[in-house]
Amino acid sequence: MHLAHLSLTNFRNYVRCDLDFSSPITVVLGANAQGKTNLLEAIYYLATAESPRTRSDRELINWLASEEHPPFARLEARVEGSDTLREMSIVLLNDGERLQKEIRINGVKRRALDLVGQVKVVLFMPEDIDLIAGSPDARRRYLDAAISQLDRRYARSLQAYDRVLVQRNSLLRQLRDHHGNPQQLEFWDERLTEQGSQIVATRLATVTRLHELLQDVHPRLTGGEERLHLLYRSSLPLEGANGLVAYRQLSLDAARAQQEAAGSDGPSQAGIRAVFHQQLQDRQGEEIERGMTLIGPHRDDLRFLVGGVDMCVYGSRGQQRTIAISLKLAELELIRSETEEEPILLLDDVMSELDEERRQYLMDAVHGDQQAIITTTDLDSFAPAFLRQATVWRIQEGRIGPLDP
Predict the structure, then answer these.
(1) Distance between CA atoms of residues 72 and 90, nearest Å
(2) Domain of residue 305, CATH code
(3) What pLDDT is attached to residue 37?
């Protein structure tokens, strides 16, 4: 999979930008606040219809576009696959009252769900350290975005689950405030557990696979000194097929239990659904009192353990950064193995944060069939042999051109 052309109009600090990507590796050199991150954000947005930096699409429209009537932004890309040529475009139109988003694939209007997975990308940004040190919401959002690129059914289940969750929470508040009949919840409980069990089952399978891949990736980034355990922490009391209570306690024993449970049959979707439904029944009074759904995949978390220690709480900044990079490299390999396609690797100023050994490992991970677009403030972070096989551009105030020798 190769991004051949990118066109931006009124996106972030780009008034107009047209780029052709001729070589697998592109290095973009520039000072801070010149548009390097915006460039990678645009590629990620075209692949997922979501920004990794904001949930408000209005922020993506260049402020100078306010002179247009109405203000708009346009992103277009041409991607060459092994046997297909895909053209994607997104137009954001701000009519003052609401923002309109028009998505086209090969010239045909499509939904955002149809766009996800057409182009597969893995993005690493310095802010990704918050995947480890930040909130559970950030980790759930990452996991959902990664899985959605592989499985559109999962993305549909997420949308359906969110809609049901809103309706159920609204009913819970009504029951709390007006003392209605709790049996009204049964309709929404059925739909919540149907979609929620699919989400949890898919997450567990993905986390298990990522964990396996991390056993090879993470020791290489730490000189073999650390073994990383990836743990899915469910709000449901799930049990493995052998009766091992897994996915809940943050300890080395629990991490081992997760691996053993996943290595057998693990909890089935039907089993998860039954547990989920029973928990909703058992906690119905508490949920009505609080006016919200207290269990389900929207309350789950992803944790990272080294030697039984929770790195989300006790890891150093260096450890958390290395874990974030390991996770993205494992995701890269997961997409390769599941789709037999090479995802586009987007690295935003990551080299400056690493020592020489880790930089070399990351450069070695970018092989001949892998398209990588890498931003940096300093070319000295790269080995000369790596730069010789790359196209190097300079960026300044949203304008990109070949580096002047």
Answers:
(1) 10
(2) 1.20.1050.90
(3) 95
